TrEMBL record:
Entry GO CC: ribosome
Entries under CDD domains matching the protein: NAT_SF
Protein name in UniProt: Ribosomal protein S18 acetylase RimI-like enzyme
Keywords annotated in UniProt: Acyltransferase, Ribonucleoprotein, Ribosomal protein, Transferase
GO molecular function: acyltransferase activity, transferring groups other than amino-acyl groups
Domain N-acetyltransferase: 7-146
PROSITE patterns in the record: GNAT
Amino acid sequence: MTDDSKINVRLADAADAAEIATIHMTSRAATMPYLGPQKRTHEQVTRWAEEVLLKECRTWVAVRGTEILGYAALEGDMLEHLYLRPTVRRQGIGTLLLSEVQRHSPDGVSLHVFQQNTDARAFYERHGFTVIATTDGSGNMEKLPDMTLRWTSTSAS
């Protein structure tokens, strides 16, 4: 008998793409309202997850029972995405996913975060990430000021 309340982290596969797309879209809408309404359809985001995310990144999903609660995608040493269902935030699931990424990144992990995303910035700072650069946003698609954060195993000590 399995414990359906236990959360497991596993590598994502193509069958997870539609759920990853749902999480991506709902999380961005809930946590980053300053981005404005999503211009892509669920089908387009699912196709991106299948054709780009799952092929270019090592992607993990956090699962309780059969429900995917969140995902993290790592490309090289860059954490490209870490998103959760809005209803499961602040329950340790992001920490589980981030720990998996860190475990597979012995030389460290970098990420970009919008300066406005204070919740995400606080989350990463609690997990040992430090700011290594800030920009005015001219280099990102959204044209919003952002920051590059970095974690190394020595910064966690």
